[in-house]
Structure formats: structure tokens, C-alpha cells
Amino acid sequence: MKILTVLISILFAVFCGFAQESNQKFDYSVTGNATQDSNVKKVCVEYEIVGEKLVDCANVSENRFSLIGKTIQPTSAIISTDNAKIKPLKIFLGNTSFVFNITDKITFVEKPSIQNEFEELIVIDDIRPNYFELYGKLGEKNDVRGLAKLSDLFDTLKQADLRIAYIYFKNNPRSLLSVYAFERFAVFQSDYSLIDDDFRQLPDWIKISASGKYIAQKIKGAKAVALKNPAPVFSQVSIDGSRITLENFRGKYVFLDFWASWCVPCRKENPNLAKSYEKYKSRNFEIVSVSIDEDQKAWQNASRQDKINWINLLDAKGKPEEIAVKYGVQSVPANFLIDPDGIIIGKNLKIEELEKLLAQILK
To answer: Is 12 helix (H, G, I), strand (E, B) or coil?
Structure first.
């Protein structure tokens, strides 16, 4: 009987472990008070998992609100209200319970200990928006020295973010926060193939999460786009509504350029790309721009402002046809030069390097 009991216990543990890794849901609860003078009628929790944006909301009744939900994986989120004057807060969802008090701001009454660890991971996030705003202002003034100093600062912040995230998932592989830490670590990589060894050492529950599978796809894509490899084929709809595939350009040199409306370095290079396009477009050369914007209007406005008159695509994040995944692209700017036979002959070229190559091959 004792042996049978042990066997049953082992089978039950194996079953529970399998269920946890294959179909687990992560609970969270957000409750609290909203004072009368806060003018808050609704409290919402917003989060995004692999391109899918989700929102859960609760109405305030008798100054109280209660929101209980589930996520498919642990994730970062924002708690906000319908009062635009009240600043949202970043929270971590994943078997976590929060109690808040809302007046003219949202404050914690009770929070799980993992929230403190989460806040340590995102400590640099509040600095970064100021960086982008300042980068834009310095760019408008063409302040070369100021831009150089700011780039050095950004690199320092980036390395700090990488270090914080790396140390966390290495030291806490079983923590629910580790999937988010690894996601942050991956985001700052210019070449996803470089994180393959770290990814292989992650626990299975992270690998089979939505983010884990997405990162695995990007690692696969990054490995596929080494120099001298065939360029991955793609099919996407352009800004004018026509269907574009890589095969459309067989027999031409193609400069595949990944960018975004919010990417200052990308926007700064678009006028230079325009000059290259005018110079070589009649000489067996084509540019295909691929924006990773999530806001379609921002993409359209930036395209119009930068006078992009070549092939211009908006990528579909989280979809099977996503070009960035096939090419292992996470950060922008990023680019690939593809020869008439569909072979990659250049990667992440600066405009000067591109011009030099084109001058050699398009004589």
C-alpha cells in the first residue's frame, strides 16, 4: 500500500508539472478604494503579450473596485484610471495580488514582494523617454557633439539594463519574473543568435511560454540571415495596398531597411536613403522599407514627412508573416543588402558603407 501511495504521488506530481508547463494560467487581483474627489469611475489593467494588447477593467462602485483576471504568462502591465490626470503605475502580473488607494494618484496599500523585484528591473525605464525627447531636439539643431554625448549615455543605460536583466534571470531561473527579465535582455540585442546559449539554459516553462516561443523564432531567424545565406522570403501589403514579396525583386539588388517612426537615427537616415535611391533606382536597385511601428497613422505620417517613395511596408507584430521575426530583427535601425539571386551580401550597413558597395557593384 505504501509503494502504491508513493507511485500515485509521483504520477500526480508529474501530471501537475506537465499541466503547469503546458496549460498554466496565472492569476492576479487588483482591488482597492477610489476616493470621491478622485473622479474615478473605472480602473483598468493593460498589458501586451507578443503583440496582442489586452485590457481588463472594473467599475468603481461605492468608492470600491475589484478586478480579478488570468494571463497566459507572467507579464508587465499598467494600472490606470479613466481620469487622465492620474499617472498610471507599472505592475507585474503573475499569481500576484494588489491593493491600491486612488486619490490624485495611485498608491500601493499592499503589494507582493515580487513587485519590488520588478521595480528594480525597470528602474531605468523612467529615464529613457527623456532621452528620446532630447535626442529629437538635438537632432533638429544638428548638435553633433550633444548627440554624441547622448549616444554614449544611451549605451551606458543600455548596458546597465542588460546587466540587471541578465543577473536576474541567471540567479532566479524559477522565478515568475524571469520570463520578463529574459524578454528585456533579448530586446536590447542587435543579433538574436548571440542569446541562443542563454535561451537553451532557461527552464522549459519559459521556453514554452508565448514570449519564449516568440524569442525562439527570432533566434531561428537571426541564424538564418548570416552573410551568404539565402534571404528569407516574405509577403506583405505595402502602404499603397499592393502585395509585395521578395520574389518580386529577383534579378535586382535589394536594400531591406527596418525602421520606425519613433526611431530618430532611422528618420535621420531616410533623406540619405532617398539620395541613394534616386542615384541607383534605374541601375537594378530597389529599397524595401519595413516599419515595426504599432501605430499605423504614425507610420503613414512619418512616411509622408520623410518623402519615402520606394516600397514601404508595415510589419505585423506577432503574426506568422512578420518579416522582423524571419530576419531576427528586434531593434532598429537594421538592414540587409540582398543580391539578384536572393543572397544576403551585407548586414547593418551605414549609409557610407552602402554607397561604397553600390558604387562597386552597380557600375
So the answer is: helix
